[in-house]
Amino acid sequence: MASLTKKKTSPYWFACYTLADGRRTKRSTKHTDRRKAQTLAEQYEKAAKLASQKRLGEAQARRVIADIYEATSGERLLSATARDYLTRWAETRKADTAHSTSTAYAQIVRDFLISLGSRADLDISLISKADIARYRNAVLARTSAASANKALKYVRIALGAAYRDGYTQENPATKLETLKRPVADRQQRRVFTLPELKGTLKN
Length: 203
Prior knowledge:
Low-confidence stretches: 183-188
CATH topology of the largest domain: DNA polymerase, domain 1
Distance between the termini: 94 Å
Strand order of the largest sheet: 1-2-3
Radius of gyration: 26 Å
Order of helices and strands: EEEHHHHHHH
Mean pLDDT: 81
Largest sheet: 3 strands, antiparallel
Number of domains: 2
Structural class: mainly alpha
Number of helices: 7
CATH class of the largest domain: Mainly Alpha
């Protein structure tokens, strides 16, 4: 059971709880109020217990983090599913971008949500680099590197907005580099060889 202790060198209560591997540990609660400190200590132990039972999935981890954040700050952590946030974001772009651009944003959002499948209904903070890479690669498989890069760019813009709005701690799309077009797909110009140049001048 989680308990509290104090150190002579700190005004804060320290939570004492058991880790997933069975070891006892101590962590500062950053609270001087014993009641708030005890609530946080219990959240720490809850997270450790779920981890030890291998039950701390992505969604559960997000809920535990939200509980800990609320116990620490007194405020609820901003939350929205990827589907809700991205759909709302695409809708708001109609007011501040050209029609063609807002239409492209909406299409990319629809395609990305389809690519996410059931993960679209997870909190947007749980969308990963792997999710975005899977979508980008699917676009590449059916179109071109240029289209895949455009899709990545728009997803990067959308998730950048989520980061700035406080719904995520990072923008995972920035971890992906744009694709390089295969040499065979490029239309490259080359200089004339000397024989070709002479032939052209004779004509």
